Hints:
By secondary structure, this protein is of the alpha/beta class.
Amino acid sequence: MTFVDYEKRGHVAVITLNRPDRLNALGRELSHELRVAENDFAEDENSWVLVYTGTGRAFSAGIDVRDRVERQDAGGAAPPPLPAAIEITKPTIAAVNGLCYGAAFEMTQRMDIRICADIATFAMPEVKRGVVPPTGMFYLPRLIGRSDALWMMMSGEAIDADTALRTGLVTRVVSADQLLGTAIEMAEQICANGPLAVRTVRKLVKLVGEVPLDYGQRLAAQEIAAVWSSEDQREGMRSFLEKRPPVWTGT
């Protein structure tokens, strides 16, 4: 691939947006390569956690405005941009290394955990271009609260890493040279746990606020019962009693 680096380190997969001369803008080619890598991760049973990061001074500047204008000039109005992401059922971590704007910021909002370098900035500048963020209005208020989210989306103003930490947008702020290593360490810590249990926790937490409480509790009971009858549960209990690391199969 030309604009996306994709590697696997044990159970951890890493996607690196690699178009630094255009601030890793989400053009057609990069978005296509991103989906290819995401699909590979989703289908690989040996890959349990996915880390995203970028090269250069940006995670990503968002959509490639030049590319979009050229498409409009060539064939009329272009469809609204959407973050280049598929529905992934395994844990994801965004390691934001620099500026993270627009569609790229919206992409990270769909991820499970976000950490950033101390030089990172985040913005939703769509209104400055006369357009509306297509998914941020659904995700951002859940992450940082309605008032802060509305300010970001209606003003287009960027926030720094300290503000991102204060509002709960990111879990950790580290130096740029420690960012990827920290993200991979966090991913490996998740991978040390039962993958079936981890994915069930992720699935149930995502349901919070989306379904009625009584339905959510019934669904949770079914999901938890399935985990308790799994081979991973038996292995987890046996390894604890035998004082050895567990060998997970995800079954």
